[in-house]
Design a protein that fits this description.
Structural class: alpha+beta
Radius of gyration: 17 Å
Protein name: DUF1028 domain-containing protein
Number of strands: 10
Organism: Streptomyces yatensis
Pfam families: DUF1028
Number of helices: 7
Largest sheet: 4 strands, antiparallel
Helix content: 25-40%
InterPro entries: DUF1028 (IPR010430), Ntn_hydrolases_N (IPR029055)
Length: about 220
Amino acid sequence: MVRDGERFGIAVSSSSPAVAARVAHLRPGVGAAASQNVTDPTLGTSLLAELADHGDAERALAAVTGAARNARSIVHRQLTVLGRSGPGVVHSGAHTLGKHASATAEGAVAAGNMLCGEHIPGVLLDAYSAASGELEERLVTALKAAVEAGGEEGPVHSAGLAVVADVEWRVTDLRVDWADDPVDRLAELLAVWLPQRDDYVRRGLDPASAPSYGVPGDR
């Protein structure tokens, strides 16, 4: 999970299906959050609501992990949150599965569970920092580096990538919900999507001036 200027992005992979649909939470102009490990998607929504109120990632995390309604279940959750300034923050409950670890930096946070080793989140952030290209490309490069360094203890089967910028929807939202090589498949999807990303934003904002789709029936 990273911040790049006004953009926020999340890349994620898992041994379980459709991980991005459950884990990744983003709000333009506000921040990013992830609810992992025996996932409760409402926690991601709650983290973003807190961030929208005051913009403080540590305060948002404390409010959600300390809420009475979450008292019995929060030990099972792994949460990350990143706001408009500062590093990301992490909660890993006492019942987080397997080997788990996290790493934070200015404008970034990574966390995982059921890992092959505690070095994986650090590998991901280092690879992101060293990568070049668009935010989406750097995130996929980092995700591939983490998988190549061992990733989860077992094989991963789903992966996803999402980015928000200066419009009220995800400018990138790509998912591989079940495959033997989901991160490689995600990279292939990105190669198709990225050259067209900005055109689709223009179609949403000003369809009269946007490029045509270049498909039969497009006038």
